[in-house]
Give the backbone structure.
Amino acid sequence: MTKIQAKVTLVGAGPGDPDLITLKGIKAIASADVILYDALVNESLLDHAPANATKIYVGKRAERLSTSQDYINQLLVDYALTHGHVVRLKGGDPFVFGRGGEELDYVRQYGIETAVVPGISSSVGLSGLQQIPLTYRGIAESFWVITGSTTEGHISADLFTAVNTDATVVVLMGFSKLKEIVKLYQQAGRGDLPIALIQNGSLANEKLVMGRIDNIVTAAEESLVGVPAIIIIGEVVAKHQEFNKLRQELVSISH
């Protein structure tokens, strides 16, 4: 009887478009005995798995919190010990608000081999696809990636600091807190700062809404933007090829 070689590989699937996963990620999926995949993973990626691989959806979204993190952690261990190679397929990158570190910590307690295949995080991938540079000489020397909402459901404390930086600020999982974020920037006297919202980035139904802090809530409501969406705040947003056209339209409307 062949001894089972327990292993867990965290694989970043990228921001949605299945073509944005790495070749190494595809190879990991192709060698999997079990795949645990998230809500934001494009399910077409499962076609690369062996025909006899077990595929289990363990998605977690605001409107569907049925799969707890503790349960996922236990599944990783149980399936690795009983089936062999488990691929944990996660949207974006496992280590950018993907709880990848937590899952590795848990799995390692059982002496199970682990590996990581990085993925393209939506924080850098979606801005790039929209040709919005996160850094730009003379405009932004760095970029910050911040969660919009904590585990307790509060706005991240880091945003109170972020309103004062000239760095580009990318907010993930923060669309539901957009009004609160806008208020913070307005209180800091930065209502004229460019901002972009990207919903379903990299997919055919992608939506992009741009504006200024002072008008972005109205623009979002008129455009019917919703989750999942990322927020990009900073002068670099004005580098988008359509931003100046948008600015001219807003000026003409105001007059």
In short: Strands lie at 7-12, 34-37, 54-57, 85-90, 113-117, 143-147, 168-172, 194-199, 207-212, 229-233. DSSP finds eight helices and ten strands in the chain. The helical segments are 23-30, 69-83, 100-108, 122-129, 158-162, 178-187, 216-223, 243-254.
